[in-house]
């Protein structure tokens, strides 16, 4: 049987029945088997007719191509069918529930997409004269106003391109503020052990050292633990609230006060702002800087490395150090402050070439204006309600590490699988056969075998009921001793279980054609 470097039959009909669900083609009814586009190559076949180019003098110093460059030749129907078949293998929020915890994979209203494609937003260029993009600048200004109003903060930096980029912005503002105070010696950043990995990474990138704060048995950070770490070298604390265990930090105000009294700043990771938007103003909790993931809280799509957007709201203490550029409204309309000499404060510099993610701004403002203040409050209410519905419905068959209600995500551990021979990975693979994307697994790291579920506010009760019934069924099946069933999953996917560790450590990033056998020649 011919195999490619990915260990997959290059010709479906050459595979065994067990590898192709017993069909000659490898197809599963309407789910079509599909080869790599390079394997479909048919030299000389093209989808368009182009005129022969006029003969021109080469600019390559006489160097000529030795052969084809490796791109496949395909007719138009082949290309369309190839990518259509691949799209049928995608799992997306338009298919069913996407329960990834700490990710907020909610429905993206189509109205947002319609607005983002309006002429005047979709076809402008950042180098256009300001007089020709007044509407776009006004939109940025209006979105900034909403973010400041919702958070209670006096300033916002709109240019960060993602959550981690927003963390960088916040810590650079803190660094600049400390330098302005003559306290550049403050180099220690306090980070709870349950934090997103970007928190310590960002702190280290900015030249700070990271000091970890352990979590209490209830999954939260205590003010006593923070106070024990405080000292004259502490620059700030980076705290996520609600935290990555899906729990609200009830001592957050006391923690903020303690850090401020010690001369440090309070950076709040806003990745989970979806749980409290419209209900809690971070400024009232003592926050000095917080990034807001527009692609989580305000519905703009994300995944695959982008697009994203991470504006950072800043307290009065940090506002003077906000990065360039930012929008101001004067007598002649809106304009961008692009140079430090024109700024009122002491901006620490510029984070990116232009002004932020315009398409994300349009989508986020569309979402905000569609909901209004009361609707955004309802978003948080429904997100928390859905998560608690999942938690309450499953905690008799799945084990929850922390007692009591949760915020916007329900956290389970692998205690319910103890002694069954089934691992959390096996459990997740069985979920795929049932048509559900697995929840976030093995995170947060402070919980052994963590299974983190975030249903978001956009899921209906009927969908949640089906999801809950599925997990109950799988949990009971695991406890019944059918480990072999889980270890063989998934069975119904286009590909069976992969060696994910090897794929991550030794990725094959380039397809190479199989070697052609050398034909022996008879001696003369």
TrEMBL record:
Q: Which reaction does it catalyse?
A: N(6)-[(R)-lipoyl]-L-lysyl-[glycine-cleavage complex H protein] + glycine + H(+) = N(6)-[(R)-S(8)-aminomethyldihydrolipoyl]-L-lysyl-[glycine-cleavage complex H protein] + CO2
Classification from the root reads:
Bacteria, Pseudomonadati, Pseudomonadota, Alphaproteobacteria, Rhodospirillales
Q: Which residues form the Aminotransferase class V domain?
A: 186-303
> Can you name the source organism?
Aerophototrophica crusticola
Which BP terms does GO give this entry? glycine decarboxylation via glycine cleavage system
Q: What does this protein's UniProt record list under function? A: The glycine cleavage system catalyzes the degradation of glycine. The P protein binds the alpha-amino group of glycine through its pyridoxal phosphate cofactor; CO(2) is released and the remaining methylamine moiety is then transferred to the lipoamide cofactor of the H protein.
Q: What GO molecular function terms would the record report?
A: glycine binding; glycine dehydrogenase (decarboxylating) activity; pyridoxal phosphate binding
* Name of this chain's protein: glycine dehydrogenase (aminomethyl-transferring)
Q: Which EC class is this protein assigned?
A: oxidoreductase
For this UniProt record, give its keywords in alphabetical order, as a comma-separated list.
Oxidoreductase, Pyridoxal phosphate
EC assignment: the record states 1.4.4.2
Q: Which NCBIfam families match?
A: PRK04366.1
The segments labelled Disordered in the record are 1-20
Boundaries of each Glycine dehydrogenase C-terminal domain copy? 382-479
* One cellular-component annotation, GO: cytosol
Indicate yes or no for the key word Oxidoreductase: yes
